[in-house]
C-alpha cells in the first residue's frame, strides 16, 4: 500500500492557533482489509544524553557509555479516518482538520525535572534542535498517519513535519531601553594615582583637599531587556560625577573601546532515571568590537555605544523559552574602556536578554501600512532648455582630434613594425 499525507497550502511556518488541514491518500493494488486508518497531530520534546557507566573495578578511560532518553509529548490529537472496511484496488482520500493549541497538555510534579524546568501547561515552544555536550535536544511538531491492516501485517506509518514558531504577545516596533546604575563600579581616577604613603597620610589626617580629590564617576548602562530579530539593539552609556567637591576645571572622559558579547545557554535533562542526567551547553559570540574610538563622554549625557546594531535573524536566533525538559536563554555582556587624563578603567556589565519571537509581516501594526510612498507628480511637457545641453561642436572637435592622433600613432607603429620585418 502507498500511504501519503498531503497538507493544504504551500510550505509555511505555523503559529499559535493556525489550522492544519489536508488529506491522507491511501493507494492499494489489491483488495485490502483495513482495520483502521487514523491520523494524529502531536508535539514531542525529546532529550538524549550519554554518561559513562561507573565500575569500581575498572578505572580506565574507556568505560562503556549508557544512553539516556526522555520523550515528552506536548500534546496529541487523533482522528479516525477509516475503520473495519474492505478496500478495492484504488485510491482512497480522507480529509483531516487540526489546530495548533494554545497550551501544552502534561502536568508534572515539582520533583520530576527540577526547579529550572516548567511543570504546568504553558505556551508551545518553537521547533528546535541542537546538539548538547552529551546528546541532543529536539522539539518537533508533526502529522502521523497509521494504517492497521487485518492479519499479521505490521502497521504502516508515514509522517509530515510541521515547523512552528511562537507568536509574540506584545508587538513593539522599537525595544525599550532600561537604565542600570553601576554603583559597585564607581571610578575615582585621580585617587588611583596616589602612592601608599599618600593614602596612609590621608587617613591619618582625615583631611583631603578638594582640589586633589578629583571626580567620582558612576557609570550607567542603558540596555534592552527584550529584543526581537531584526530590531535595533539600543545600547547607551552615561557618566555622572558624584563628588561633592567643586571642580574648577573638570576634564571629561573619553570612550576608548567597546566590546559586546552574547551568550547562549541551553539546558536539557532526562528525568526518567534516578540520576536525572542534565546537559548544559554554552556558546559565546563576540557581536561587536571597536577600539581606539577616542570619543568624548560628557557627564550626564547619554552616548550611544553602537549604531545600527541589530539581532540577526538566522537559525541560531531561537526565541527564549522554557518547557518540561529543555530551556534556552541568552545573556548580553558589555565591556567599555574609559579614559580620564591618561588613566583607564573598564566598565563591565552582564544582563539577561530575552529574545522574542520574530514578528510576522501580517501582524505588524497598522502604522507601517499607512506609511505609503508619495506618488510621482504627473508628467507635464515643457520647452527644451539649452542650460544643461552639452556643447556638441566642442566635444566633437576634441574627439576628432584625439582619434586622429591615436590613428596616426597606430599607423606609425604599424609602419615601424613592417619595416623591421
From TrEMBL:
It comes from the Eukaryota. Coiled coil: none annotated. CDD domains: ART10-like (cd22952). Residues 392-407 have a biased composition (Polar residues). InterPro entries: Arrestin-like_C, Ig_E-set. Residues 368-421 are annotated as: Disordered. This is Arrestin-like N-terminal domain-containing protein. It comes from Karstenula rhodostoma CBS 690.94.
Amino acid at each position: 500500500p502507498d500511504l501519503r499525507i498531503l497538507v493544504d497550502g504551500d510550505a509555511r511556518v505555523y503559529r499559535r492557533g493556525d489550522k492544519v488541514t489536508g488529506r491522507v491518500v491511501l493507494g492499494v493494488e489489491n483488495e485490502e482489509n483495513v482495520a483502521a486508518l487514523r491520523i494524529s497531530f502531536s508535539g514531542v520534546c525529546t532529550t538524549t544524553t550519554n554518561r559513562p557507566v561507573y565500575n569500581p573495578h575498572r578505572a580506565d578511560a574507556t568505560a562503556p557509555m549508557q544512553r539516556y532518553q526522555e520523550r515528552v509529548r506536548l500534546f496529541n490529537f487523533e482522528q479516525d479516518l477509516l475503520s473495519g472496511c474492505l478496500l478495492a484496488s484504488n485510491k482512497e482520500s480522507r480529509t483531516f482538520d487540526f489546530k495548533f493549541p494554545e497550551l501544552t497538555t502534561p502536568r508534572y510534579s515539582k520533583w520530576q525535572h527540577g526547579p529550572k524546568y516548567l511543570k504546568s501547561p504553558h505556551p508551545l515552544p518553537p521547533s528546535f534542535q541542537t546538539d548538547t555536550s552529551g546528546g541532543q535536544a529536539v522539539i518537533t511538531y508533526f502529522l502521523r498517519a497509521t494504517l492497521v491492516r487485518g492479519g499479521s501485517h505490521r502497521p504502516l506509518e508515514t509522517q509530515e513535519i510541521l515547523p512552528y514558531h511562537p507568536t509574540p504577545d506584545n508587538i513593539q516596533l522599537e525595544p525599550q531601553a532600561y537604565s542600570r546604575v553601576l554603583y559597585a563600579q564607581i571610578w575615582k581616577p585621580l585617587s588611583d594615582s596616589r602612592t601608599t604613603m599618600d593614602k596612609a597620610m590621608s587617613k591619618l589626617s582625615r583631611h583631603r583637599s578638594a582640589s586633589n580629590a578629583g571626580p567620582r564617576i558612576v557609570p550607567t548602562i542603558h540596555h534592552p531587556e527584550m529584543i526581537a530579530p531584526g530590531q535595533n539593539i539600543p545600547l547607551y552609556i552615561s557618566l555622572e560625577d558624584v563628588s561633592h567637591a567643586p571642580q574648577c576645571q573638570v576634564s571629561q572622559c573619553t570612550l576608548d573601546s567597546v566590546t559586546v558579547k552574547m551568550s547562549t545557554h541551553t539546558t536539557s535533562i532526562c528525568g526518567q532515571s534516578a540520576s536525572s542526567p542534565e546537559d548544559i551547553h554554552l556558546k559565546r559570540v563576540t557581536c561587536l568590537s571597536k577600539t581606539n574610538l577616542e570619543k568624548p563622554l560628557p557627564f550626564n549625557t547619554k552616548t550611544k555605544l553602537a549604531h545600527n546594531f541589530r539581532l540577526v535573524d538566522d537559525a541560531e536566533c531561537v526565541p527564549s523559552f522554557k518547557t518540561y525538559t529543555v530551556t534556552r536563554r541568552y545573556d548580553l555582556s558589555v565591556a567599555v574602556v574609559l579614559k580620564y587624563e591618561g588613566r583607564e578603567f573598564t566598565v563591565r556589565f552582564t544582563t539577561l536578554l530575552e529574545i522574542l519571537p520574530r514578528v510576522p509581516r501580517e501582524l505588524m501594526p497598522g502604522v507601517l501600512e499607512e506609511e505609503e510612498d508619495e506618488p510621482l507628480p504627473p508628467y507635464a511637457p515643457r520647452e527644451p532648455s539649452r542650460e544643461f545641453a552639452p556643447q556638441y561642436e566642442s566635444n566633437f572637435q576634441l574627439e576628432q582630434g584625439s582619434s586622429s592622433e591615436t590613428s596616426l600613432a597606430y599607423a606609425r607603429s604599424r609602419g615601424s613594425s613592417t619595416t623591421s620585418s
